[in-house]
Write a structure and sequence with these properties.
Blueprint: E1 2-4, H1 20-42, H2 44-47, H3 59-66, E2 74-76, H4 82-88, H5 92-99, H6 138-153, H7 161-164, E3 180-185, H8 192-204, E4 208-214, E5 217-218, E6 221-222, H9 223-226, H10 231-235, E7 242-247, H11 251-268, E8 272-277, H12 297-302, H13 306-316, H14 321-344, E9 377-378, H15 380-394, E10 398-402, H16 419-423, E11 428-430, H17 435-448, E12 451-455, H18 466-474, H19 476-479, E13 488-494, H20 509-513, E14 519-521, H21 526-538, E15 542-548, E16 564-565, E17 579-582, H22 586-590, E18 595-599, H23 602-611, E19 618-622, E20 625-627, H24 631-641, E21 644-651, H25 656-668, E22 677-681, H26 691-697, H27 701-712
Parallel strand pairs: 2-3, 3-4, 4-8, 7-8, 10-11, 10-12, 12-13, 13-15, 14-15, 18-19, 18-21, 21-22
Antiparallel strand pairs: 1-7, 5-6, 9-16, 14-20, 17-19
Helix pairs in contact: 1-3, 1-4, 1-13, 1-14, 3-4, 3-11, 5-14, 6-8, 6-17, 15-21, 17-18, 23-27
Protein name: 3-methyl-2-oxobutanoate dehydrogenase (2-methylpropanoyl-transferring)
Keywords: Oxidoreductase, Thiamine pyrophosphate
GO biological process, one term: response to nutrient
C-alpha cells in the first residue's frame, strides 16, 4: 500500500483483519453481485430495456467501502456501484425495482436509471440524489462535506447513540464523526469540476473520501488515450489531500485500506483520495457490449477477478469449501426469487408523472411589516444586505459564500459589507473563481442540513455553473421522488447600465427559465427585494434571485422608485405573486383608453417614466417572480385592458417575453383589442462597451413611450 500526505505527520492506523462474520457477509454479497450481473445478462431482453451497469470486477473495493460506512455518513455512489449498495444493506429486490423502473423503486419511484440511488432511511448512510456520476457528483459530495464541517463548527451536529448505531449496521470505529464518500471512475477524474472539488476539499480540509475505481476504461477509450496521469498522480498536486493506493480487486487489502481512509477522515477531518485498481469484467453499460471493442483485454482483466481471489483467501483462512458453496447457493436463490418478485411488481401510476417538481413552498402568504411607521427609505442594495444579515442572525444553519463576498470587501457591490466580520469566516467566506462549485456545492449543503446563500459575481459568469444547476439542483427533487429537494439561494447581479460592457451587463432570465425545477425571482424595488430574499431562503427548492445592478443605488435616471421604505426584519413576500406597480385611471379604463405593461426589474421603471406621457392610461404589472409565474394576475390584467405590452431588457428574439406574449394571445385572444406588443433589447450576442452603442441596443423610457403610443392608438 502506498500512502502520502502533504500536511500533518503520518499517524499509524491499525487495520485488523475483518472478523469471521464480516468475511462471510462479504463473500455472500460478492456472490450476490456476481449473480445479479449473470442474471441481467441471461435475461437481457427484459433487464436491458433500460440501461444499466454492474459492479463486476469492482465488488471487492465497493463492499470494503460500504462496510466502513454508518448511518451518520453520506455517500455519493456512481452508476457501477450496485455492490456498494448491497454492502450498505439494500436488497437485490430493491435494486431490481429500479432496474425495471417499478413503482416501489425506493430511490426514484421508477424515474431514473439502475444504481442511481437517492435514499433517506433510518440505519443507512444518507445517499443524496446526484446525476449520472461522470465527475459532476464530486462537487455536490464535497459540498456535503463542507456543510458537515460548517455545522460542526457551529455545534449543530450532535447525534444520539441511537442515531449512530443499529443492529444491522454496526459502525466499526469508536470515533463516529460523519464523513462523505464520493465514488468515481478514473475516466471521470479528468473533468474540470473534479479539480474544483479537490481544490476546495484540500483548501478547507473537508471530511471526505474520494474513492477512485480505476479499471482503465471509459466506454471504449483506454486510460492511455484519456489521461496523462492516473488519479493518484493527479491528486499529488493538491496540498493537504491525503492519498492511498491499493489493489481494489483484493478484498482484504481493500478493507484495510478503506479502514485507514475512514479513520483518517474521522480523526483528522481532512480529505483522502483512494486510488483502487480494478478489472472491468462486465459491459460498460448494457447498451455498449464489451465484445465490440475489448478483444484480448477482457481475458487479461479476468485474471484479476476479485471473486475467485477472495474465495482462495477464505479457504486459506480456514473457511470450508462446503460453507462457501452454501453461501453462493443462498446468493443465487435470493437473486432468482427477488427477480420474480420484481417482475411482478407494479409499474408507476401514470397519473403521478408530474409529482415532485418542487417541494411545497414554505411561504405562501405575505407577512410582517412592509412599511413600518417611521422607517427610512432604503436602497435596494442595502435592503439585500439587511435581508441576508437578518437571515444569518435568525438561522444558524445559514451561510453565505461566493467570490469576494467575504473578508474586507463584502462583494463588488458592497452587498455583503461587514457580514464576514460580524459572523466569522466559517459563515461568510470567499471562494475561488469556481462557479460550478459555488452552485453545485449547495446541493450537498442542503442534503446535510446546511442552508447556503451563494453569489455569482455577474450574470455573464454563471455559465460554468449551469452544468451543476441543471443536472444536480434542478432534477434532484423530481428524480429522488421528493426525497431530496435542494434548498439553495443563488444571487446573481444582472443587467446593463453606464458602460458595463460585454461581460458585466448580461440578462439571462430566458436561459434560466428553460431549466425546469428551479425558481427565478426578479425584484424591482427595495421592499420586494427584502421580502423575496427571505422567502427565497426559506423555500426548500433552488431559487435564483436576479438583482439588477442599475437599481441597486437608484442612481440611474428614472429609478428613484426602486428606493422604498424598508420592511421590518422578518418580512416575507411569497414567490409567484405579481403586483400592480401602477394603476390606470378608472375613467380611462371605462372608456377603453388603457393598456397594461407586463414587465419586471428595470422594465418597471422604464414603463413608469414612459407612462407620464399617457396620464392615467397605463397599468404596470410587476411580475416579481418569473417562475412560478403569476399567470392569473397576467390574464386578469390583459382582460381588464384588452391591450398589452410585454417589456424586457433581454434580446427579444426567442425570449421569455416573446413566449409570454404568445401564451397571452393563445389564452386571452377574445379579450384582446390589439396584438400583444413586445419590446426588448436588440438581438445581438453581447452588449457593447461604448455607452452610445449600449443605448442603441437597450430599451429605455423613450423607446417604451413610442411603443405605448402605437399600442394605445391601435
Amino acid at each position: 500500500m502506498t500512502t502520502e500526505t502533504a500536511v500533518l505527520p503520518e499517524t499509524e492506523f491499525t487495520a485488523p483483519r475483518p472478523n469471521t462474520e464480516t468475511l462471510r457477509r462479504a463473500y455472500r454479497l460478492m456472490r450476490t453481485a456476481d449473480e445479479l450481473a449473470r442474471l441481467y445478462e441471461e435475461n437481457k431482453a427484459v433487464t436491458a430495456r433500460y440501461v444499466h451497469a454492474t459492479a463486476r470486477g469492482h465488488e471487492a473495493i465497493q463492499l470494503a467501502a460500504a462496510f466502513h460506512l454508518g448511518p451518520q455518513d453520506y455517500a455519493a455512489p456512481y452508476y457501477r456501484d450496485d455492490a456498494m449498495l448491497l454492502g450498505m444493506g439494500l436488497t437485490p429486490y430493491e435494486l431490481m425495482l429500479q432496474l425495471m423502473a417499478k413503482r416501489d423503486d425506493p430511490f426514484s419511484g421508477g424515474r431514473t436509471y439502475y444504481s442511481h440511488p437517492s435514499l433517506r432511511r433510518a440505519g443507512f448512510p444518507t445517499i443524496p440524489h446526484q446525476s449520472s456520476a461522470t465527475g459532476m457528483q464530486a462537487i455536490p459530495a464535497t459540498g456535503a462535506a463542507h456543510g458537515l464541517k460548517y455545522l460542526e463548527s457551529q455545534g449543530l451536529t450532535a447525534m444520539s447513540n441511537e442515531q449512530l448505531t443499529t443492529a444491522d449496521h454496526p459502525i466499526p470505529h469508536s470515533n463516529t464523526k460523519p464523513l462523505v464518500i464520493c465514488s468515481i471512475g478514473d475516466g471521470a477524474m479528468t473533468e474540470g469540476e473534479v479539480a474544483e472539488a479537490l481544490q476546495m476539499a484540500a483548501l478547507h480540509q473537508l471530511p471526505i473520501i474520494y474513492l477512485v475505481q480505476d479499471n482503465d476504461w471509459g466506454i471504449s477509450a483506454t486510460g492511455r488515450e484519456m489521461r496523462a496521469m492516473d488519479a493518484y498522480e493527479f491528486a499529488a498536486g493538491f496540498k493537504g489531500l491525503h492519498r492511498l493506493q491499493f489493489d481494489g480487486a483484493d478484498f482484504l487489502a481493500s478493507y484495510a485500506g478503506m479502514q485507514q481512509a475512514a479513520d483518517y477522515v474521522r480523526q483528522r477531518r481532512g480529505p483522502v483520495l483512494v486510488h483502487a485498481k480494478c478489472p472491468l469484467l462486465g459491459h460498460h453499460t448494457s447498451g455498449v457490449r464489451r465484445e465490440w471493442y475489448r478483444g484480448d483485454n477482457l481475458a487479461q482483466h479476468t485474471l484479476q477477478d476479485p471473486l475467485p481471489r477472495f474465495h482462495q483467501q477464505l479457504l486459506a483462512l480456514g473457511f470450508a469449501e462446503d460453507e462457501l458453496q452454501q453461501l453462493a447457493a443462498e446468493a443465487r436463490a435470493t437473486v432468482l426469487a427477488d427477480y420474480e418478485r420484481a417482475l411482478a411488481a407494479p409499474n408507476p401510476d401514470p397519473a403521478t408523472f408530474a409529482d415532485h417538481e418542487f417541494a411545497p413552498a414554505a411561504v405562501t402568504e405575505e407577512s410582517g411589516e412592509r412599511s413600518p411607521a417611521g422607517a427610512d427609505k432604503a436602497l435596494m442594495v442595502d435592503a439585500a444586505l439587511h435581508a441576508v444579515d437578518d437571515i444569518l442572525r435568525d438561522f444558524p444553519e445559514a451561510l453565505f459564500y461566493g467570490q469576494d463576498v467575504g473578508g474586507e470587501l463584502g462583494g463588488v457591490f458592497r452587498e455583503a459589507a461587514l457580514l464576514a466580520k460580524k459572523y466569522g469566516d466559517a459563515r461568510v467566506f470567499n471562494t475561488p473563481i469556481q462557479e460550478a462549485y459555488i452552485v453545485g456545492s449547495t446541493a450537498g449543503m442542503s442534503a446535510v442540513g446546511a442552508k447556503a446563500i451563494v453569489e455569482i459575481q455577474f450574470a455573464d459568469y454563471v455559465w460554468p455553473g449551469l452544468n451543476q444547476l441543471v443536472e444536480e439542483l434542478s432534477k434532484s427533487c423530481y428524480l429522488s421522488n421528493g426525497q431530496f429537494p435542494v434548498q439553495s439561494l443563488i444571487r446573481i447581479p444582472v443587467g446593463a447600465y453606464g458602460g458595463g460592457g460585454p461581460y458585466h451587463s448580461g440578462s439571462i432570465e430566458s436561459t434560466l427559465l428553460t431549466i425546469r425545477g428551479i425558481k427565478v425571482v426578479y425584484p424591482s424595488n427595495a421592499a420586494d427585494m427584502k421580502g423575496l430574499m427571505r422567502a427565497a431562503f426559506l423555500d426548500p427548492n433552488p431559487v435564483i434571485m436576479l438583482e439588477h445592478k442599475g437599481l441597486y443605488w437608484s442612481k440611474v435616471a428614472g429609478t428613484e422608485d426602486a428606493k422604498t421604505v424598508e420592511p421590518a426584519a422578518g418580512y416575507v413576500l411569497p414567490l409567484g405573486k405579481a403586483a400592480v406597480a401602477q394603476e390606470a385611471a378608472p375613467d380611462k379604463l371605462r372608456n377603453g383608453e388603457t393598456c397594461v405593461v407586463i414587465t419586471y426589474g428595470m422594465g418597471v421603471h422604464w414603463a413608469k417614466t414612459a407612462s407620464r406621457q399617457f396620464p392615467g392610461q397605463v397599468e404596470i404589472l410587476d411580475l416579481r417572480t418569473l417562475n412560478p409565474l403569476d399567470w392569473e394576475a397576467v390574464q386578469a390584467a390583459v382582460r381588464r385592458h384588452g391591450k398589452a405590452l410585454v417589456l424586457t431588457e433581454e434580446p427579444l428574439l426567442n425570449s421569455f417575453a416573446e413566449s409570454l406574449a404568445g401564451r397571452i394571445q393563445r389564452h386571452c385572444f377574445r379579450q384582446l383589442d390589439a396584438p400583444v406588443f413586445t419590446l426588448g433589447a436588440a438581438n445581438l450576442p453581447a452588449i457593447a462597451l461604448n455607452v452610445e452603442l449600449e443605448k442603441q441596443m437597450l430599451p429605455n423610457s423613450e423607446k417604451v413611450a413610442g411603443v405605448l403610443n402605437e399600442l394605445l392608438a391601435y
